[in-house]
Amino acid sequence: MDLIEPERPAEDGKEAPPEASVKATRVPRRGRVLIGAVLAIVLVSGLYLINRYWISPALMTQAMGSGDHPDAPPISLTDIEGKRLDLADYKGKVVVLDFWATWCGPCREEIPGFTVMQDRYASQGFSVIGISMDDEPGPVVEFYKEFKMNYPVAVGNQRIGELYGGIFGLPTTFLIGRDGRIYAKHTGGINPAIIASEVEELLAMSPTAEKTDFKPAMVAGTATKIELGDPAAIDSEIPGLNLSKLTAAQKEDLKKLLSEQHCPCGCNYTLLKCRQVDRACPVSLKLAKEQMEKILKPGARTTSTGKSGDRGTG
Amino acid sequence: MKTFSAIVLSFALAAAGAWAQAPGPVVKAKVTMAAGVARPDSIVKAAVVAEVLPGYHINDHHPTLDYLIPTEVKLEPSPQVTKNDITYPKGELKKFAFSDTPLSVYEGEVRFDVALQLEHKTLPGDYEVKGQLAYQACNDHACLPPAKVPLLFSFKVVRRGASVKRSE
Q1: pLDDT tops 90 at residue B2
Q2: What count of Cα atoms within 13 Å lies in the side-chain half-sphere of residue B87?
Q3: Which pTM was predicted?
Q4: A72, A272, B114, B159: which could join A258 in a potential S-S bond, CB 3.0 to 4.6 Å?
């Protein structure tokens, strides 16, 4: 930065020499860089604080205070002790539904806090339910014993994860109220004291009326809107695609198209087969949806007669 | 002024990137084959270079704790390859909020060296061996499910006696 001082007449009235008429005070280059960096940090910090404490809570209030608490999708599994685990049996109780895995460090860190909560609040109508996303029950059983878990734990599956909107990070924790609605979703490890405060608020709720004024703790990983999966798409014969808008002929056309194209994800399967064996594959899901949309476009022709019996599965 | 603007802009972009969702897979990987062609009974060398998204880590091939899922390069069986050797780098010890013990992990760019021993009866021609990089990634407070990146090792075999360049 150059500071230019205005020309001043010489004190003795004589004209000042040309080279002295302009005096420039230059801020050193290093100083300019430092000033720039400090201003940038202040700018970014300010933006972060505005988002954290003003914009996000406002969005939160908007999303959650308007009654947007969906019913928790049904879960019916056999727990690792061989007993039936049905979420419907917990209606009237506050439930912390924890998706976790034995290979997940943050999950292992969090679970002791859940066993403490189970002891503390069970008599008030509360339970933790653990859904392990491990591939096999063996490690889960060992973990259950080692960590002295005191609440029901079952090994989950892809379908349940999809019903709950997709479990993209572990742990993912849902808070379910006495009315069976989901009131909060947290992804990532969370301080047990925060969950406890949410549980206490939900324990005080009526078992029938939706608690519209509930506000979950706004921490990193808290969902501002709880989105669940579409059961029609999840249980579809082409997993991930809701086929209810297609005619029988269109369905056959779609299956034929998907059987003729290979999935570029590297699986060596056709798109149809990839959807069936790897429902998590985002590549085949995207391509299959595009094909379905083409078929649903007005004016699109069908070539199939709509007869049942799909022979080709890739 | 230009320097000042650049600094402000770079910070703002970095912040915007941090708040945005992670775009796609956390780990990308590509195969780089050693230049030239190979003879039957020779060793074909390659490298798998993985890029781990900033903020995430994947476990060392020999993980610090038993329950952690190791990073692994796996190759499909191939009639042309009798044996393959994978060299895994040593991970970096890092401390995370969810573990009292520092964990040996890979972050940023990671290189795995691959050596494919060709079968001595391999006929001249172009060949491909498929594989995958299997990993499980976490950041400081959440873990993603185990995942795989498909790999393809492509190489050309020439007859014995033909000149080769830098394949063995």
Answers
A1: no
A2: 9
A3: 0.75
A4: A272
